[in-house]
Every structure is written in C-alpha cells, then in structure tokens.
C-alpha cells in the first residue's frame, strides 16, 4: 500500500464528487484549482520519493484484490516510464484549472466544468498508474464521458458532431483493445501487467500473440492517433475549449503511446515484432501527412484554422513517437518517451497561446487573423507573440529545446532498428521522417510569419489587443520553463526512462 | 385399472391394484423451504385477490403495499437457500429419476432477478395505478402471478414444469398489457398475445418431439436419452430441439421474433413495459439456458452456432433500430428502451452460445451476472421515464437537468450503465464478462460483432444523455413532472436502483461472483 499514489487518484475523484454538492460556480472553480494543485503537489512528492537509482523497479506499489471473480486487482505503481507522464498530467490539469478560473469558456457554468475536469484527471492519472489490464481499460474509458461533455458543451463550432466522432472512434478502438486484453487474460491466466511483462510472452502461442497484438495495436493507434486512424482528432481539437485541447493533446494522446510501451511491447513481444514494420510505415506516412496537411492549412487563402493546424501537427509529432516505438530499440523507445513528454509540454503551450489569440480575435482563422500583411503580434502584443514563436520553434525541434531530443532519438532508433526488423525499410522511414522535420519547420515558420510578423498599423479585426495577462503568464510560464529545461538537460528524463525501457525490452 | 373393473371384464390375471411395483416411490416429499420463494409470491397473489373483494375503493392503495410486502417475504425466503446447500424437491425415487425442482445458484440468481424486478415494478406502479385508474386488485394479482411464474421457471428441471412456469409468467402479462383501457393497450395486448401463443404452440410441439425422442421429460434424462437415441430418431430430436429454441427465442424477443416488442411496450403501462423488459426477458432466458445447457447438451455445437447467429442478429437489429429513433416521435423514450432491450437481449445470448461451444455450463455465469445488472439499471431507466411522464418524446427530456437535477443524474447514470461506460462501471464489467465468455469459447467473431454493437449502442444512449443536459427548448415546454413532487414510492424505487447500481459499481464483485462459482 502506498498512500501517496492512492491519494493521487482518490483526490480528484473526491473533488469531482464534491462538485455534485450545491456550491457556486466561482467556488467550484476555486475548488478545482485547489484540488488539482494538491494533486500536483502529491505528484511532486511522489517524484521526490522516487528512487532514481532504480527506475526500472515498480515503486509506490499497491496490490489488493478488487474483483476476485475476474481476477482483477487494484494494482498500482510507478516506474521511470510512468512517473514523468503522471507529473505532466498533474501539471497540465492544474494549469488548465488555474487558467479556467479566470477564463471559463462559454458553456453551462463552472461547477459542471470543474466536476468533469476532475473526473477526466482521475482517468488520465489512473491510466498511467494502474498495472492491471482490466483497470487500464477502465481508466481508458473513464476519460471519454468527461471529454465528450467538455467538447460538446463548452466547445465551439461543430462541437456536438466533433464530440460524437471523438467518443465513437475512441470507444471502438478501446472495445477492440479490450478483446485483445481478454484474449491475453484468458490464455495467460492473469491480467497483471507486471507478471505478463516478466513472462515476456512465454505461455502465449504465436497466433494468440498476433491476434492480441493486432487488436491492442488498433485500439491504441486510434488513441495515439496513428495515420490513418487519426480523423477524429482535428475536429475534436478544433471544437474543444482551450482546456480540453490542452489536455487532449498534452495527455490523452500519450495514453495511446504509453499503452504501446507498457502493454504491447513487453506482453506480446512476438506479435509486436511482426507488426512493428507496419507501425513504422504508418508512423512515417503520418509524419509526412501531418506536415503536408499543416502546410496546406498555413497557406494564404486556405481558410486554415490555427487550432486545426496544431491538431494536424500533433499527428506528425505523434508519428515520431510511434516510429521510435516501432524500432523496438532502447534508443528509439527512449526517444519516443521523451518526445511524448516534450509534445505534451510544447503542444499544451501552443494550444494555450492559440486559445488566447482565438479569445482575443474571436476566431482562429489564419486568413482573418493575418489580414494582408500578417497579424503583427510582435508589434501589437509582443509577449504573446514571443511565446507563440518560442512554442513554434520548440515544436519544430530546435536543438536546446524539448522538441529536439525525442525526435532525434526516434529517428536514430529507426536508423538502427532491433534485430529481425528490416533495416532498409526502417531507413526509408527515417528518411521520410527527416523530410517531415523539414516540412514541419516550413509550416511553423509560415505560421510565425503570418501571425507574429506584419504591419501593426494595418486595419485589424479587433482594435484592442491586450497583451499577456497575469493568469496567462502564471499558467504558461511553467510549460515554457520546462520546455527549456528538458531541452538543456535531457538526462533528467532519459535517466528515468532508459533503465525501465531496457527492463521492458527484456535486457535488464 | 379401475375402469377395467367397472366395465365388468373378467379378471384374467391375479389382481394387480397398482401399475408400479413400489407405490411408495411415487409419493414425493416436498421441501417447503426450497419452493418457498415462488410459493410465497403465489400466496401473496391470492391474498391480494381476496383482499380486494373486501377493501373499500378508497383503500385500494393498500393492495400495492401488500404486494410489495409479499415480494419482500419471497425475497427473504431466498436467503436461507443462498446460505445453505443446493436443495431439490419433487424428486422421483426411481433410479435416474431426477428432481423437478432444484434451488441451485442458477435458480436463486434468476429468482432474485424475477422477484427483485417485480418488487421494483411494484414500487414504480404504485403511482401509475392511481394516476391511470387501473383496476387495483387485478393489476397486483396479475403482476404477482407473473412474478411467481418467472420465479418458478429457473428452478424447474423438467420440460412440463418449464412450459407451465413459462405460461404462468406470460399469461398474466397479456392481461397486464391490456389493462390500460384505450385502443393502444388492447392492440398491443393482442399483438403480444398472438405472437406469444404462437411461440407456445411451436414450443409445445418441439417439446413433444424431444420427449418422443428421449423418452423422458427430465432435463438431465433428456440429455442422456438424446445421447443414446437411435439414429432414426435423430431428425425428430433435432426438429424438436429447433422448435423448442424458436419458442424461447420468441419469449426473449430475439431477432427475428422481436416484432411485438416496441408496440407492446408502448401500449403497456410504463412499469409493465419495464417489467416485461426485465423479468419477462429473464424468464425466457433462464428457460432457454436450462433447455440448451441441460437438456440439449449433446447437440451443443449445433445450438451453439444457432444461438451465436441469433445473438449477433438480435444485437445488430435492436441497436440499429434504436439508433434510428428520432427525438420527436411520440413515446420515443419507451420505443428507444424497447429496441435497446432487444439489443441487450443479444448480449445476454452471447454466453449461452459460448456455453454451447465450450460444452459446459460455465459461461452461463456471465449471462446471469449481466442479466442482474441489466435488470437493475433498465428498471431504473424505465422508472425515470415514468417519473418524467408527458408525451414520452425524447425531446421532452431536453434540459431535464435544469428542472429535476437528480432525475437527470439518475437517468444519465442508468443509461451509461446500459451503455457500459464509466461512471457506469458495473455495466462496463457486465460487458467485460460477456466478452470474456465469448473470447474464452473461441467465438472471436461474435466478440467483434458485439464490440461494434456496443459502440453503435453508445451513440443513442449518449445522444439521450446529452439531451438531458442540453439547454431547455426556447419556449420552455416543460413536460410532465415540472411543478409537482416525486411520488414517494417512485422515488424509493429509483433511489433503490441508483444506490444498487452505485454500490455494484464500486464493488462489482458482489454480482460478478456468480461468474466464478458453480451454477448447477
């Protein structure tokens, strides 16, 4: 039993339950900030108490039976892979709650918003903390209903259609994933992820592994999302309110890639090895596809929505993560996990900034924003402009910022894939990914040019454009600072993930 | 024998007064504790009928509470059975005779569902009977009789008792459906009656074929008989098996025998529709499970395949039809629940099919667990629909959260349980055990079909849930409940269902333990 980890999961759930009580909207929002703040504190405590010398060992473990009939246990724990993601989740949710106190999106009020946000956080944290396949599936499902309502009720544009598409798509994925889990559970006789990972696929026939790996891969690829299963994502991100977009991109996409690393790789290694080249191919296509889509959206006269553009850029960035995983090497996996966290920080920041721009202009349409010469944020709101430019160059992978290391390592992993995988194929994927980085740089620079530069004197859609406000600075600077920190000191994360990755791959 | 004497024929043989060698063997001892649950329900039914004669019009309300008390007593009678060992009664002492009534875990679980479902229905009905001026005595009597039949059915272990119990469960239901004295009630009752009587006739034919082939009506004996039946009797036995299955498929409203469901539910008083969707279905299902896994065991692969196809069709058709419901159709809410119940029947059939493939009764636990969960939350959903009232259009639920917060939360929770999405955790685990039974038995394709269906079903459950929290329509056409208070029994029933579902969500083990234990 470990009280900190249990409290980490119980606290948001308790907070969500509290919002059922008749309290005012403002009180509820403050309650939300307090609860997510306390959760973040717990996550920091957990990280501080984490034995950094042995990150491949499950720590803070709780293991008690919950449903003996199904052999489902409340098995919780963290290692070097899940710890950064837990802290990231706690941080992003806290920042979203903080931001929402001042800037609640238009919708049915703060109480329901807070309740849903906290429920969402419970599900996200649980995904990274549980070590039982059925619980993992449960946590996967918990996030769906809150996110559905956040999009459908607090979103903008085609919000109901986008929310429907989001939930149906991901549910179909997770239902298929459940079938894979059950197949493993039935054949291996346990749902315990640690036991299954230690067994490393022994006891599961090759056919079982193939079928299970395919089912799990499809389910997680929807969530990640991997091209061509990504089509729910642009709509959902575009329609979601700022907090929803931040959490969708910053955390929920990671649930998919985390699942690949935590479940697919160690539990069904044979099946994974069979499908890895295909996953790599889809990842490479996704990288190029996402960048091309962004490039098309960034063009003048394309009526591109800025949020939609960042959503498509997520498809590209998650492609790097998937490519790193597909290489099945420690290098690639470390890169994937690093890129995971980096993408959470950078895209979270991007969505915050773009959300603020959208609030100020009333639209995120790039053509309307830019006018004839460009939106000239450098001139009119220099701090916001600078932050946007910072996030954009971080996103395109400038060395020294967080975006660089993950993508570099993922490509390096693809350059020298695990034994048994076709080297020429993976080198091709790497070349495609390299092309993707160029395209990514191109569209992000176009965006910076069209949004940040331009003539400040030209007639603008809104006359009054306030610069960075206090609450915005408070909720954004931690992300910017961490982006810089992770870029300058990658060993902070890699030191945690490397031993754990080697352990999962069966090396250590 | 006596007739022979009366005709005055000369006695050619020494006097043999009785046809069997050991007359004492025919006298069966009755274990009253074992038969107590259905018996108490039956006695309560009679008590209600008699009391009705002596009660003045103003005090007819008491009858409802009397019924509730009777059902509570019947439920209490389950306790000693659940704690003790399996008891059997009405046994034949001849070797290999078997018993006609067995209170094993399977029977107890379904009795809990039948009696508990009936109790919730009674609580839901107390208000409806008054509001719609239904004849009290008849209503309660019929409801209790039907519940008695539904409780008797899962414990029956021979074909005759099975058929009789099924008829006791369904015959009063026709009358219940028709009790609402308007054209719609009569039409739905007639539809229900005709299709159900057809099913009974077909089933009786099937049962007689099976009897002819196996030479006994004891379920266990039938299995042995069929296994040893001579080759030329095989076509007869197979035809009998198929016809029997068809009969039960009618009762469970499996596709293609489902057409009566929506019209019947819409025409019936709402609590009765809820009752039919839970207890009526449970009765058919338990009968089907008994006949297939016990009597027709030797043909496991055949009926396993038939049931698997039936399950796939049922869930697909039910969900597709539910998906097509528009929000402005009159009685759309009940129609949606009716079609969704058809879809859910499909899920319930999956473990049955798996049992056929696995060749053992083990997967049935999933059906039992899922039926218990489904019964609880489905009755809850019907209860909220009854509470909201009005024209029953789905549009009438728009913005319910603003008018009646707890009703909206309750309905949302029940719907999410039916959909199997957290926070309706118990519904999720219900589906997990059903999936597991299918995967375990190697029915991968059925599991995939079901997975797709779960997603399709989510679309309409979620549409309804979202409607509850949508802003109210502009003109404020609040229907039904706006203004007046929730009737106490209705509130109690809803509270009971909601608390039950929440408790089971936190501790699913309470209901899922039937999955791991032995049933028979």
TrEMBL record, chain A:
One of its GO terms (biological process) is electron transport coupled proton transport. The keyword Membrane applies. It comes from the Bacteria. It is found in: Endomembrane system; Membrane. The chain crosses the membrane at residues 29-50, 83-101, 113-145, 166-186, 206-226, 238-255, 275-297, 309-329, 335-357, 384-406, 426-448, 476-496. The keyword Transmembrane helix applies. It is a multi-pass membrane protein. GO terms for cellular component: endomembrane system; membrane. Keywords: Membrane, Transmembrane, Transmembrane helix. It holds the Pfam family Proton_antipo_M. GO terms for molecular function: NADH dehydrogenase (ubiquinone) activity; NADH dehydrogenase activity; ubiquinone binding. Residues 132-416 form the NADH:quinone oxidoreductase/Mrp antiporter transmembrane domain. InterPro entries: NADH_Q_OxRdtase_chainM/4 (IPR010227), NADH_UbQ_OxRdtase (IPR003918), ND/Mrp_TM (IPR001750). Belongs to the complex I subunit 4 family. NCBIfam families: NDH_I_M. This is NADH-quinone oxidoreductase subunit M. It comes from Kitasatospora phosalacinea.
From TrEMBL, chain B:
Its main location: membrane. One of its GO terms (molecular function) is quinone binding. It is a multi-pass membrane protein. InterPro entries: NADH-Q_OxRdtase_suN/2 (IPR010096), ND/Mrp_TM (IPR001750). Keywords: Cell membrane, Membrane, NAD, Quinone, Translocase, Transmembrane, Transmembrane helix, Transport. Pfam families: Proton_antipo_M. Residues 156-454 form the NADH:quinone oxidoreductase/Mrp antiporter transmembrane domain. It catalyses: a quinone + NADH + 5 H(+)(in) = a quinol + NAD(+) + 4 H(+)(out). NDH-1 is composed of 14 different subunits. Subunits NuoA, H, J, K, L, M, N constitute the membrane sector of the complex. This is NADH-quinone oxidoreductase subunit N. It comes from Kitasatospora phosalacinea. The gene is nuoN.
